Amino acid sequence: MVDILHKIATKAPMEKVYDALATREGVSAWWTTTVEGDSQVGRSLTFRFYAGGNEIGAFEMTVIELEPGKRVSWRVAAGPQDWIGTKIGFDLKQEGEYAVVLFKHEGWREASESMHHCSTKWAIFLMSLKTYLETGTGRPSPDDVKIDNWN
């Protein structure tokens, strides 16, 4: 198994960081503007992505952990085949004046070209999260940085 790992730190309050990861409104401010479902443990969220007005992908995630100020995690229930069954987690910790987000997208079966793409896109979206937390404005899809013909 192969994992994607990233880290960001921000001077934003931990409560704001947690809300940006644990609520539909929060996630729509930095990852994708189209989030449907219920952010409660055992329930599902669907994240839809668009380019040029057309849907280019959707992911259904089961919420598996919500620990305020500590952790948010989802398991991918539907979407691209190589995502299904993988787990996305955000571990949170305070380091002095910084709230730290340790991101992990774990359980990839192989380091495919798709995984390379997703690793770069996760980095871009985590920078969108950081910008959102520090300025109030992120760059969620469809306004994110495009990196290749996959978007």
SSE topology sketch:
Elements: E1 2-10, H1 14-22, H2 24-28, E2 34-37, E3 44-51, E4 54-67, E5 71-78, E6 87-95, E7 98-108, H3 113-135
Antiparallel strand pairs: 1-7, 2-3, 3-4, 4-5, 5-6, 6-7
Structural commentary:
It contains three helices and seven strands. A hairpin with a 2-residue loop joins β6 (87-95) and β7. The protein is an alpha+beta fold. It has a single domain (2-135), classed as Alpha-D-Glucose-1,6-Bisphosphate, Chain A, domain 4 (2-Layer Sandwich), CATH 3.30.530. Helix content is 25%, strand content 42%.
Brief characterization of the structure:
The protein is 25% helix and 42% strand. By secondary structure, it is α+β, with helices and mostly antiparallel strands. The chain has one domain (2-135): START domain (Alpha-D-Glucose-1,6-Bisphosphate, Chain A, domain 4).
CATH superfamily: START domain
- What's the arrangement of strands in the largest beta sheet? 1-7-6-5-4-3-2
Distance between the termini: 25 Å
The CATH C-level class name: Alpha Beta
Approximate strand percentage: 35-45%
Secondary-structure element series: EHHEEEEEEH
Quaternary state of the chains: single chain
Tally the beta strands: 7
Instruction: Output the radius of gyration.
Output: 14 Å
Main beta sheet strand tally, sense and closure: 7 strands, antiparallel
Structural class computed from helices and strand pairing: alpha+beta
Helix content: 10-25%
Overall number of domains: 1
Shape call: globular
Which topology does CATH recognise? Alpha-D-Glucose-1,6-Bisphosphate, Chain A, domain 4
* Mean of residue pLDDT values: 96
* CATH architecture heading: 2-Layer Sandwich
